[in-house]
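new request in #modeling-help
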Amino acid sequence: MDLSFLDSLREAIAETVRAGLPEPQASLLLGTILGIKSGFPPDFYESLRITGTLHVVVVSGFNITVIINTLAQALVFIPSRLRFFITLAFLTAFVLLVGANAPVVRAAIMGSIALLGTIFGRQNDALRAFLIAAIGMLIFQPSWAAELSFQLSFLATLGLILVFPRLDQLLPGKGLLLRETFLTTISAQILVWPLLAYHFGTVSVLSPVVNVLVLWTIPIITYIGLVTATIGLLVSNIVVLLMIPARVFLDYFIWIVERFSALKVGYFAVSQFSWVALILYFVVLGGGLWFLYQISTEKQLKS
Amino acid sequence: MVSLPDINRKTIEKLILGVLLGTFLLIFWTLTPRFSAYLSGGEDLLIHFYDIGQGDAALIEKGSVQILIDGGPNDRILTYLGRDLLPWDREIELLVLTHPQADHMAGLIPVIERYKVGKILYYPSVYDTVGYKNFQEAVQKEGAEVLWGQAGGVIRVGEISLQVLWPPANFHSDNVNNEGIVILLYYQDFETLFLGDAEKGVQSRLHISVDTELIKVGHHGSSNGSYEPLLREISPDLAVVSVGAKNSYGHPHQQTIDLFAKIGIPLLRTDRNGTVTVQSDGRSFWYDTER
């Protein structure tokens, strides 16, 4: 199948966004919705790295999740079987448009399985969906196991599935604004930080704070960005006005990231450590989680 | 399966939250310096000498009218334009390329590609580089009105006048720096001299009869970039060197720094002071530096 038209579509969207937004807003939006990394201003890329928010543009299947949820909700009036296939068709087109890299494919497979669960009324067992996605991907493309982006996305998702429910039980303040974002970030970070430290020799303590402050904008940016970029393709002469809603959120995101990266605190260099220590960390963490899981099930049995 | 009203309620809640957050951000947005300048009238002339590394890039603004003189060696100019232009302003009324060396030209290419450019002023130097070819292609594709820089020409953009002092018609030099466009900017009683990379030989042939408040020092402050008699003739109150930190050329040269100290002209440097912004109401002027 000739897919070169997808390349030109991607290029056309990039051009539209760049005509409507300055830098680093344009790069941030293109990185978020389409995973385009070329043309990133080096200073801003460094700011993202320092604040631990680079995953938004580098290792992200977030846009996929946003698309699945949006379509599934927007199409409620369509019969469920048909809805599933329409969503799946859109999803496949989008995955091809973005480029089928590891995080995107993982998010797409997991999202589809989850969607299958909600639409057909079966129990949505996230861990099972996740394992199916991971094993399926590795059978299809074993070399992904060695890719950092796969490992990071794998660990982050595992954190969301395993750590998040425990933290959610343990910590008070249910329903508070941004509590969920905060816990989500922490849950992912608990599994991801040793790998980042191992590869980049740095640990960002600010990361959870900055992520809490900015992550909530990403679904909004993805959604508004996709819609306005698509309209912009058709009516290019008003693209500047179209981009203003997305720009408001992009400006906020950039402002926060730049402020925190300028602080130059909360960012530590760690000395080299062995991969044995890395494994040990995950073993201890796994044991701790299993222990917590036992306690919570015992409590449930007693009550 | 999740029932329909449930989804709707959640969607509506999210929508309301989104609108609230959007409003909050909009308020936050109007607190940024760019906006407050706009709201307070923005009646003054602004000249930004951007810290873009080793190269030249200066933006002149009056209200919604912008003139960009050179674009620096890289894309960093896009970030500065994003910061200084209002979100809905994607038009540069006049773009000037003093001469086709990469440290002045490279940043202009993405600007032409991404912004609407009204007029483009440059001198048709013969200069065989890929970058220059790309620049000319971008100019052609943009379809902007092209003006050839030639001594004696005056370009009016809004309330700003630019007088081209150099090069004379059909001038040719083997040193492309000396084919560079030299501009004297007039805004009421405030004048600024943009020398580009013009060297002593060119500067000795310039005759400027008006008192000039501000000067963009020639050729990044190199040893042959400043001509003492010209400086004494126009007696500027402030000089700005556009130069990159720890550049391999050793710009600005100690001779130049000493010369300005001797005459008593304060010298600002984009490598040490960061972006320099000069503001004028047409009579007096004041400035602000990033560092």
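bot summary: Residues 22 and 28 of chain B are 10 Å apart (CA to CA).
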